[in-house]
Amino acid sequence: MHKTILLTSFDTWLESQQSNSSDDLLLELAKLASLPHHLTFLRLLPVDVQLASSRVIAQINELQPDLVICCGMAASRTQLSVEANASNTGILSVDSIETVLQTSIDLEELVAEAAAVEISYDCGKFVCEGLYYCVLDYLSQHQPTVSCLFVHVPVLNQDNLPGIMADFVLILNKLALL
Q: What CATH number does the domain containing 74 carry?
C-alpha cells in the first residue's frame, strides 16, 4: 500500500546562504523515481513559525497525509538528526505554560539500521522547533492517527550527500511501514 507523505523544507534566512540544506535534500529526493510512496513536497517555507505552521496545517487538511516529515537545516551538525520532541518556549504567550510534545514514532527502531543518524532532544529553539511543536499539537488534536517527525539536515556537499540520502530514504521507507 502506498503511503501519502507530506515533506516540508524551509527557505534560507541569511543573505549569505545560497540554499537551505533541508530543501536541497528534498530536491535530491524528488529526483528518485524508485520510491513506492506518494510524496508531496511543501518547499521553501518562510522562516517564521506562524506563517510556516499555517501553511503546513493547511496542506495537511487538504492532503490528509498518512505521515508528515518536516525538515530543517542544522548547519552545526554533521549527520541527520531525528527530533524526539519540541517545546512551545519560542511561541509562548505571556500567560502560557511551557509544554513539551513528543513524536509518537519509535526513534530507536527507526534509526537502528541507519549508518549515521542521531536522535536529538534539542530541536534548536528556532523556527524548526516552533513548526514541529505546532504540527505535533495540531495532529494530536485533529488527526491523532497521523505521525509526524522532524529531521534536521546538515549542510550537504558531494562527500556527505550519498550517505545522508541513503539514511533519509531508509527512514522514509521505515516510516511508510508504520
A: 3.40.630.20
